[in-house]
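Hey,

Quick one before I head out. I ran the complex with protoporphyrin IX containing FE overnight. Inputs first:
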Amino acid sequence: MDFLEWATSPWGQNVPIHIAWFLIWVSAIAGLLFLIVHAIYVMYFAKARVFASDASPAVAAKIPKHVPRHSLVARLFHWVMAASMFTLLFTAFLPKVGVQFPWVTYHWIAGAVLTVSIIFHIIHASFWLDFWSIWPDRIDLDDAWKRVRRFAGMSAPPPRKFAKYPLENKLFHGVIILCGLSVILTGIFMMSRVRTVFFPRNPYLFSDMTWGLMYVLHGLAGVGLIALVMMHVYMGLRPEKLPITKSMIFGWMDRDFYLEEHDPERWVVEAPSASSISSRVESRGAD
Ligand code: HEM
Ligand code: HEM
């Protein structure tokens, strides 16, 4: 079984041309298996979650009824990026599994939208959002170890409540960065092989071997995104996660949900007072 498709270049060299398309099914089935195993585990085997401690009543009283989580700009970015990602996955892989249509133009247009949205997001997240909130910290790793020990039936103190993002979300974001930047950077070069509005066509930019490896990386990251997006959408649709999904639509989550899962010391949220309402617009997480 070969994971790549090969061809012979005009110079007689054996070069890869792209991944073998059965990998589409490998990724889709891996995503599906994750959903099935996770759903069965939650339904029949998961125990109620235990956290280290609750916020003191004094701290809880300061939390507003609606806790701002995703600003309008962050939400618009998420949904524009998600629409471009779905378009890219469908236009890339439907023709490979038998649904034929002229896909290339739709694909590079969606790729351009994804690229612009990610460049925007990197600038927005670096200067306006809470930059460190999406990267694992020491407490996350410490808690992950406690969770693994408790899962295995060994003794360990309960973990702390989450900061803004649980470790799982942070890891998902990290893997998305790897796959996302791989498809974007290779995709920009690959556009020079088709006719687009951006630059003149030039299929001779790289050697056949370099082009081949670029198509392989584009394909591997692309099929990886099938399973990743399946797992992510499934999590967004799970009943216990709906308050979080609601926050990606309306921007806020309920105080009760916030207090149940988040640690006010790790994800600081202030009650809006008359004087702070205007300044909060510029503060972290609420711009
Ligand atoms: C392909 C690449 C990427 C994708 C698809 C992506 C997507 C997302 C999405 C959908 C969110 C949640 C929406 C929000 O509240 O902002 C998010 C959060 C975040 N991302 Fe990215 N991202 C990518 C790359 C990056 C990179 C390279 C950086 C760092 C330079 C970054 C930094 C952040 C930060 C700091 C947050 C948390 C913002 C907050 O909640 O305050 N992202 N990302
Ligand atoms: C129907 C489709 C989708 C739904 C319902 C959905 C839902 C959500 C929600 C609720 C969040 C916020 C999580 C939080 O606040 O903790 C989020 C974040 C994020 N979404 Fe989506 N999303 C969808 C499609 C996509 C697609 C196609 C991508 C592209 C790969 C994507 C990438 C991300 C990333 C990287 C984050 C930030 C990391 C995280 O919080 O997990 N989303 N999404």
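The chain is about 55% helix and 5% strand.

Talk tomorrow,
K.
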